[in-house]
Automatic annotation (TrEMBL):
Keywords: Acyltransferase, Membrane, Transferase, Transmembrane, Transmembrane helix. It comes from Pundamilia nyererei. The gene is nat14. Residues 135-149 have a biased composition (Basic and acidic residues). This is Probable N-acetyltransferase 14. Residues 118-257 form the N-acetyltransferase domain. Residues 116-149 are annotated as: Disordered. It comes from the Eukaryota.
Amino acid sequence: MVRLELDQVVIKRMKEEDIEIVKALIKEGCEGTENRLILHILTRPLCLFILAVFSSILRCLVHSFILALAIPVFLLIVFLKITMPRSTGVLGSSRPYWDYVGSSYREAQDDTLQNPYCRISGKTPFTKKPKRRAGSKDKDKETTTEKITPEREQAAGQVWLAECEGDILGCIFREGETRAGISRICRLVTGSWYRREGLGRLLVQSLEQRERDTGAHRVYAHVPYPSKLGEAFFRKLGYRQLGVETSDEDDMELKQESPERGFLGYPLTKVYYKDL
């Protein structure tokens, strides 16, 4: 764990040269989430019943109890890994992938979010040029040849990075706006060395403030179903679970913002929301 001064963190839009670093950060932050989701599905009663039926049928074809038990489980795990949304990480997303190039920022001057800790401390964050990985120049040349239209940028959404002294410490993804006044956080990741330091809270609250200033009145977040830590995190920030802590007037929202579902219709995420 590294002690982090939150008033020195700059939150800015991701650019093309940051894409590879962001992908590595996400891979690190999402390790184990997919396996926990698969285990959650495999241990549901209906799923266990189906596996037991297939095992009984195979027992009549193969003369090994272990094979008859292991083959259905193995095939189901392979199926789930192929069909499960790849973007289901710390937060879920209906997208099977993310358009990193389309969501990257292209203006010369950085677009940043307000850091509330700077106002409290009165300090100005120190920034320097982010570190670049070897071979990143060649990758940048490849990505800049892609056609980026306003429609693609709108659909791709935005990625905001938490940076301190040139190092990218975390990121938060905001999906493209599909409904007026509604914002959706689809992923939140912090580096392993900077967890439990308030960085995730800073990213969420800074993005909420921007969405509030631009006219949004509600923010949604999808949390992977077995993630107790993610649920507790958003509850502390004032989020409520849709469908459990909602009133009758929010019944229509259940249809608009339903949880991601996987094998046999089992939910992969829980939907949380906050009115701004």
